[in-house]
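Quick one, T. Sequence first:
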Amino acid sequence: MKRLSPRQLKIRIFAIEYCVDFNGARAAIVAGWSEKRAKQTACELLDDPEVELQINRVMAEREKRSRVKAFKVLEELAVVALSSEDDYEFVKEGETHRLKVRDGVRPDAIRAVAAVDYSKQTIKLHSKTEALRMAGQHLGLYKEIVETRDRTLEDLLLDDDDDDDGQAAS
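Structure tokens:
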């Protein structure tokens, strides 16, 4: 195996730690970067193609080891996120009731059910909000929010001006 430079080693550690909980600041600190600049360093690292490559490698290694594919995880999250209590009905069978998925609803929607109370004929679904948050996080939908959280409005506006014509506003 090729020996890594100190920077490459820090990047590898950052990528591994980032994939734990997608907290860039925490990952930067664990990898050895300054605690004071951890959030800014994380944003810079996440824009670095070398870091992106390392994160993708870590994710692929994790997927291979766990035998759980990312699309399967997203599929499960989608089942939870897209399910509604209206998707289910109780059906009487003899003296008992059974929960079933209504006609026209995907059959695997039953996996979104967290608990069933047959005596009250109520169900509790897994958290839709949590499923949407996790799917969004996995898909990188919140990256921009994390990157701009600690910046001032003025900083953000100046950056927008830079994008418009290549020069900052005067």
